Amino acid sequence: MSRGRAGSLAAFAASLLMTSCGGGGGGGGYTTSPSSAATPTPAPSPAATADVVITIAGMSFSPNSVAVQAGQTVAWKNGDSVTHSATQDGGTFDTGPIPAGATSAAITISSTTALKYHCMFHPGMVASLNGGSSGGGGGY
């Protein structure tokens, strides 16, 4: 009986030691709870800071062609029920997946030339940023 009690006490002490030490070095042995680490912090809406917002609805970009100037920012708002992207044909920009109902991060346009883009999930969805001129410079 005393051997079983000693074993239980040792197991409890080891458990207590592992719990209090954590694994993170420093911080006095305290760690955040797993539930707080797993809860993502909502990001601010990129559309609030974009100069131009293009809507994705009905499996198309609207407007389909947009005049933007170098230095302006563009975001895409997905109004469809499936994930989309805005991926420039030459790889200059890629929003990555934009879930249904979400808005992409704003992308700063650095070119005054036409930038054709498509949805990487639906290659038939195509559009362009036609690179409205800022009055000078050479496409950068």
Can you walk through the features of this model?
This protein is of the alpha/beta class. The protein folds into two domains: 2-38, no CATH class; 46-129, Immunoglobulin-like (Sandwich), CATH 2.60.40.420. It is 18% helix and 21% strand. The strands form two sheets. The chain has a four-stranded mixed sheet with strand order 2-1-4-6, with no helix packed on it. Strands 3-8-7-5 form a four-stranded mixed sheet, with no helix packed on it. It is globular and about 30 Å long. Mean pLDDT is 74; it is low at 6-47 and 133-140.
Overall geometry comes to globular
> Under CATH, the topology of the largest domain is which?
Immunoglobulin-like
| CA distance, first residue to last residue | 81 Å
Task: Compute the number of helices.
Answer: 2
Please state the CA-atom Rg, rounded to the nearest Å.
Answer: 26 Å
CATH class of the largest domain: Mainly Beta
Structure keywords:
single chain; Immunoglobulin-like; disordered C terminus; globular
Write the layout of secondary structure elements.
Elements: H1 2-21, H2 34-38, E1 52-57, E2 60-62, E3 65-66, E4 73-78, E5 87-88, E6 107-108, E7 115-118, E8 126-129
Parallel strand pairs: 1-4, 3-8
Antiparallel strand pairs: 1-2, 4-6, 5-7, 7-8
Please give a quick description of this structure:
The chain contains 2 helices and 8 strands, in the order ααββββββββ.
